[in-house]
Amino acid sequence: MPFSVRKTHSIEQLAEKAEEYATVIVPDSSLVEPLNERIEGKVSTPMKLGFDGEYRQKLFLKFAEEMSWKQASYFLKNAESCLQSTGKLDGLKEKGLNRSEIENIRELMSEVENPYSAETVEVEEPVLVLDENRFNEIEKRILPQEYDSLSSFKDESRELGKFYSFRSAGELAQAVVESAEKIGADDIAVVSPSNSRHRSLIESRLESEGIEFTRSLALSESENLRTYIGLMRAAVSNNPLRVEDIRPVISQLKISVSRRHDPKLLSRLEHADARDLKELLNVLQHMNFGEALEKLDELGAETHKIKAVLDRLGLENREVNRANLSKLEYYIQRFDPSENEENGVLLVTPENGTFIDRDYVVFAGFTTEWNREPDEKPWTDERKQRDIIRDEFELMLQSGTNQRYLVDESEQRLCFNLTQILGASPTDFEQLEAVRTAPTRREGQGGFAKKQTNIETERVEMLSQSRLNSFALSPRVYYFDRLIPSADKKVMKKGRLFHDFAEFYVNYSDFTEEQDYIDFMVEEIKPYLDEIELDEIRTEFEIGTRNIKKYVRREEISSKEIEEYEAESGNKFAEKYGKELRFEVTELEFTDEEMGATGKIDFVKNQAHLIDYKSGRKKTENKIIEASKVDMYEDARFPNFQPIMYLAEHRKVNPDERLKFTFFHFLHEIGDHIKGDGDLDETLVTVEYIPKSFQEHIGTDEVFEYLTEGVAKSNDRRKTLEKIGKERYKDFIEHTEVPDTHETSEFLESRFFEDFIKLGKERVGDYKYVEKGVKSAVKKLVKIRNANYFKKDLDRFEEFLGEQIEELNRCKENGFPIDGNPDDLPERDLLIEARK
After folding, report:
1. CB 547 within 8 A of CB 676
2. CA–CA separation, 688 vs 702, rounded Å?
C-alpha cells in the first residue's frame, strides 16, 4: 500500500517564489546555501541576521569570566533553551535558579551582541518568511513587523516511493555504494545518523572503493591537537606516568620505545629517546601555552589552528597548569571548531537534513538512531516540538528529485518518527511492503584488495580455568579477552614474585631466612611503581612472605614427586641465588587432552591436598562452590572453575580418595597482621571433594554425627534424630529419593522432606519439635550439598567442559554472542559497541 504525505515545494520552486523579495528568512541553515546559490545571497536564518556567527562562543567566554567553565556551559545552555521556548528567562526558576542568578544571566547576555538580547532586526524589504510555525520565540521576536509568509508544504498530498529492504547492514551499505558509482558521487546524498552502524559501514565502503564523500573535520580529531594536549596533560600530571599512559604521544612524535615497557613508570625507564621525552615534559610545566605550542611546532607538527583557539581563549600567555588545560579541553569539547570537505557523496544526519540539495537522496536504515525527541526541559512545549519534528521529518523525506528509501531487515525496530508519519507500527516491517532486493555485488565482493588464502580456523582442544571462566560468563567477553589483553602487568609481576618466593621457600627454607629477599623483590617490581606504591608493596611483601613461611613451616609437606604433573622451569629466586629446585611439588603444570583441561597447580601439599596462592579478596566456601558448580555458577557474580577443574584432574591421580583444595589468601586482613593480631587460619579457605554421590555421603555415620553433635541435648534436631536412631536414619536416606537441587526451598517442598517428617513422627511422636528438628536437619544437609563437591559434580563439570569447548569452536566459525545482560559484564561499552 503506497504511503501518502503532504507534498512539499522543491528548492527550485521555493527559489522561484522567493526571487521577488529583497530578504528571505528561513528556519533551517540547510536551506540557506541552496537558496542563496539560486537568488543571489538574500537568504538567512533569523539568528544570523546581522549577528556574528560566533556569538555563542563569545557568550560562553563572557559567562566564564564570572564562574567556572562548567557552570558557564550549564547556565548558558539552559538560558538559551528557556529563551527559545518562552522568550523569557523566568522559566529558569524551575531549574532551581533564584532571582539574583537570573538577573546576573540577563546582564551577562546583554554585554555581548547576540540575538537573544535583540529586538526586531532591520532588514531590506520586502521580506518573505518561510515556515514561520517552526521558528522559536527568539526567532519570532527578531522578525520584522511586516512580511509575507510561505509554507514549504503544498495544499495537496503525494505518495512516497517504494521502500527497499536488505537482509543485512552490509548489503544495505553495498547498495548505497553501487548507487554512488552509478549516479555519480557529486549528485547523490545519503541520510544516516552519524552514530549508526549503517553510517560507519557506508563510509568505510566508500573509502575502500575510492569514492569521495563529505567529511566534517573537527579540531578535536586533529592528531596534532591530541599530541599537544597529551604532552601538557602528562607534564602537569600529579600521578606517576606509565609509558602506556602517553603511548599516543610517543607514537605521534615517532619516539621509538618498545611496547614491552608500557606498564613501566616513565620516570624509571632508562632509554635514550625516553630521556629526551622526560626532559621535554619537565620543561613544559614551566612554560606558557604559546611556548609549549612552539615546542610542538619544532617537532614538525601543524599548529596554526591550535594557535587560533589559544588566541580566542586568551590562553597563549597563560601558564600551563591543570586548571587552564581543563579550560582548553572543555572549550574544544563544547564548541569543537570544524571544517567541511564538500566533494563527493553528501553524508547528512537526519537532524540536519530538512532540505538536501542533491538530485538523488538515499535514506539508509530508518533505525531507532533516527529518532528525535523534544528537549526534556520544564519550559519546553512538548506538543509544539513534536509537531516541528514531524514537519521537518516529512520535509526531509521529500528532499531531492529522486528518493530511495532503504531498510535493514536485521534491525528489530523502525524509527518512530517515520512510522508516526506513515501510520505504521515501529516493529512491523511488513507494513512497509518493502521490495526485497540485494546489491549487484554480494557482501564481501569488491572493496579492499584481497588475497585468497586456505587458512582454516584452528580448533580449540583444551581450556584453562581462566579461559573457561570468561567464555562461560560471555562468549563476547572471552573474545575480547583474547583480542585485547587486559591483565595488569604490575599485578602479574607482584603475583609472580610471591609464587616464586613460595616455591623457593619450600625448597630452601633455611637458606632463604638468611637472605635479604624483600629488597630483591622490591627491586624487581621497582620499574612499575612510584615511591609511595613502593612503600605499600614493601609492606605487602613483608606480610605476604611472613604468612607463606608460617604456613610452610607448620604444615607437613610431602616431597613425593607426582609423575602426572610437570614442574614449570624458571624461578627468580633460584636464578638470583644460583640454586636448583629440588622438590617437584610446586608450580606443577598439567595438560589433559582427554578432559580438555590445562592448568598449573601452585603447590601440592600432599597427595590429597592442593594449594593455590591468592593475593586478592577472600571468599567463603559457599561462594567458591557456587561460582564453580555447573548447576550454580550462573547465580554467581563471576564464574570461577579453578577448584573444580583442578580437583577433577587430581582425582585421576588419586581415584576414590577425598581431596581438598585450599585458597591461601596470604594478604587477607593485612592490617591485623601488621599489628601482630593476624590469624593464619583466617587466610585459608578449603573446599573438599567427596568421591561419592551426595545421597551416599549423607547416609554415613559421619553426617549423622555432624547433625547431632555440637549442640545441646535439648536441641530439636538432636532430640529428633537420636530418637529416630542412626541406623534407621541411614536406612531412610538409602531408600528415599533425595532431591537433586541446591535450593533449601526446593528441599523443604519435596517428597523427601514430607517422608522425613513422617518418619520422625512414626519413630518419635506427633510433636512440634519433631517437625522443627527435621526441618533443621534438612537445612544442614543442604549446607553440606553447597559446601562440598561430590562425584556427580565433577562428572557434570567434565561434560560441561567438553560442551563449552564445542560451543567455543562453533563461535569461532559463526561469531561470539554476548549471551547476557551487558550491564552485568565487564567492559560493557566495548561489548555494546561491538554488537552495534
Report:
1. no
2. 15
Residue of 831 and 273 predicted with greater confidence: 273
- Grid cell in block for residue 16: 522561484
CA–centroid distance for 643 within its chain: 29
Buried b (16+ CB within 10 A) or exposed e, 33-45: ebbeebbeebbbb
* Distance (Å, whole) CA 675 – CA 583: 34
Q: Give counts: helices (H), strands (E), the chain.
A: 35, 21
| DSSP output for 300-351 | T---HHHHHHHHHHT-TTSB--HHHHHHHHHHHHHH--EEEE-SSBEEE-GG
pLDDT 10s digits, 67-119: 888 888 889 999 989 998 998 888 888 888 888 989 999 999 888 888 888 77
Cα–Cα distance measured from residue 244 to residue 607, given in angstroms and rounded to the nearest whole number: 44
CA distance 655 to 473: 30
CA neighbor of 688 nearest in space, from 608, 749, 762: 608
Does residue 763 sit in helix, strand or coil? Answer: helix
Look at 471-485, 577-591, 753-767 and tell me which has the smallest mean pLDDT. Answer: 471-485
d(CA 614, CA 498): 9
- pLDDT tens digits, one per residue of 145-179: 899 999 999 999 998 888 999 988 889 999 999 99
Helix (H, G, I), strand (E, B) or coil at 660: strand
* Long-range Cβ contact pairs of 799-803 (< 8 A, separation 24 or more): 800/630, 801/463, 801/468, 801/595, 801/596, 801/597, 801/645, 802/595, 802/596
Report phi then psi at 711, rounded to 5: -135, 165
d(CA 518, CA 805): 42
Q: What tens digit of pLDDT does each residue of 501-528 get? A: 999 999 999 999 998 999 999 999 988 8
pTM here?
Answer: 0.59
Cβ neighbourhood burial of 333 (10 Å; 0-12, 13-18, 19+)? exposed
Question: Cell triple for residue 685?
Answer: 579457605
Q: Which of 205, 663, 610 is nearest to 447 (CA)?
A: 205
Kind and range of the H or E run holding 601? strand 597-606
Residue 836: pLDDT band with limits 50, 70, 90: very low
Place of cell 591461601: 664
Range 759-768 contact pairs with CB under 8 angstroms and sequence separation of 24 or more: 759/724, 759/728, 759/732, 760/720, 760/724, 763/723, 763/724, 763/725, 763/728, 764/719, 764/720, 764/723, 764/724
586-616 confidence digits (pLDDT tens) = 889 999 999 999 999 998 888 899 999 998 8
| Pairing outcome for strands 586-592 and 566-567 | antiparallel
Q: Which three cell numbers stand for residue 320?
A: 600551563
| Selection from 678, 694, 669 nearest residue 794 by Cα | 694
Summarize pLDDT for 663-708 with one digit per residue, the tens: 999 999 888 888 888 899 999 999 999 999 999 999 999 999 999 9
Bridge partners of residue 8, in order along the sequence: 153
